[in-house]
Write a structure and sequence with these properties.
181 residues, alpha/beta, Leucine Aminopeptidase, subunit E, domain 1, 8-stranded mixed sheet, 5 helices, 39% helix, globular, binds ligand AR6
């Protein structure tokens, strides 16, 4: 599915984020920036060991913030590592999740990047319920796109059918406008 947001496109696809040919792919990182499981493990395996070395030099990243590195053997020139919250049920989770998306997009904009691909942050190992996380993810991206016209493509690369369906449903719920691909 493809949606128009100002001059930008927001896409939802099923797939593997490591294969995306965009300026930056986003990693669902932890606060140490050490390679973990899930999408982080897949990104580090595909990028090669230099990625973990650069992350170690950065030294960490608080929840809700993001850091940028090179993409090494990936097609993407950059990896933006953003740290979503571990789901706790506390109302503050939503603010931290929105901040993780916003920080990643602001970093992309400040580096002049035009296209960025996200996985579904926090909804795997970190346990954030998909039906709550998906509208926060999409609404936050919509709001940043409207104020940062340099970013022309935000693609959500969703790994399984359940996740894809949750984002598709959330796009309707928040009133995004579908366009032909
Ligand atoms: N492409 C796209 N999405 C993927 C891929 C892939 N190759 N592999 C998994 N996913 P998770 P989190 C989906 O657990 O919840 C790490 O160890 C997955 O199905 O990777 O933010 C970090 O180091 C799910 O929908 O991230 C942290 O410690 C989504 O990516 C912790 O996990 C996110 O799942 C972060 O947990």
């Amino acid at each position: 599915m493809r949606f128009a947001i100002g001059n930008a496109a927001l896409e939802l696809i099923r797939g593997n984020i490591v294969e995306q040919d965009v300026d930056a792919i986003v990693n669902a990182a932890n606060e140490t920036l050490a390679p973990g499981g899930g999408v982080s493990g897949a990104i580090h395996r595909a990028a090669g060991p230099e990625l973990a070395d650069e992350c170690a030099r950065i030294g960490g990243c608080p929840t809700g913030e993001a850091r940028i590195t090179a993409g090494y053997r990936l097609k993407a020139r950059y990896v933006i590592h953003t740290v979503g919250p571990r789901y706790s049920g506390n109302p503050h989770d939503a603010a931290l999740l929105a901040s993780a998306y916003r920080s990643a997009l602001m970093l992309a904009a400040s580096h002049g990047l035009q296209s960025i691909a996200f996985p579904s942050i926090s909804t795997g190992i970190y346990g954030y319920p998909l039906d709550q996380a998906a509208p926060i993810a999409l609404a936050t991206c919509r709001d940043v796109l409207l104020s940062h016209p340099g970013i022309t493509l935000v693609r959500f690369v969703l790994f399984d059918e359940e996740t894809y369906r949750a984002y598709d449903q959330a796009a309707q719920t928040i009133g995004l406008t579908p366009v032909e691909a």
